[in-house]
Amino acid sequence: MKEVWSRGHATVRDVYEALLRERKVAYTTVMTMMNVLEKKGHLRKKADRRSFVYRPTRPRRQVVGSMVRDFVQRVFGGSAAPLLAHLVDEEALTREELDDLAKRIRERR
Question: pTM of the entire structure?
Fold first, then answer.
């Protein structure tokens, strides 16, 4: 999704080549994931010559929010507190990131 958002549109080949710069990944894996994202409504594809061009259907913030809510529901039974506790305990958060989280929590009270 990041690659499609940054470009505005992308083929499976575009995303595959971008991901290859970061890690080894199979072309078919990228194709499968993009098809899943299309079936979930996050991407729309249109035939263009011999390939499909994918475009995002919604802004990044909206899709990320939906994916995070789904993840929290499936993994943590709908409660975000265990996820946040895990991130604070297990991740190497900077002092600024921790301060920002604390500020956000105070503002929500």
Answer: 0.69
6 and 51 co-located in one domain: yes
d(CA 20, CA 4): 15
Task: Please indicate, yes or no, if residue 7 is contained in any of the structural domains.
Answer: yes
CB 19 within 8 A of CB 60: no
Phi, psi dihedrals of residue 69, rounded to the nearest 5°: -60, -40
**What tokens appear for 13 in the block?**
């080949």
**8 Å CB contact between 49 and 6:** no
Q: What is the pLDDT of residues 34-93, one digit of tens each?
A: 999 999 899 999 998 889 999 999 999 998 898 899 999 999 999 999 998 888 888 778
- Are both 7 and 50 inside the same structural domain? yes
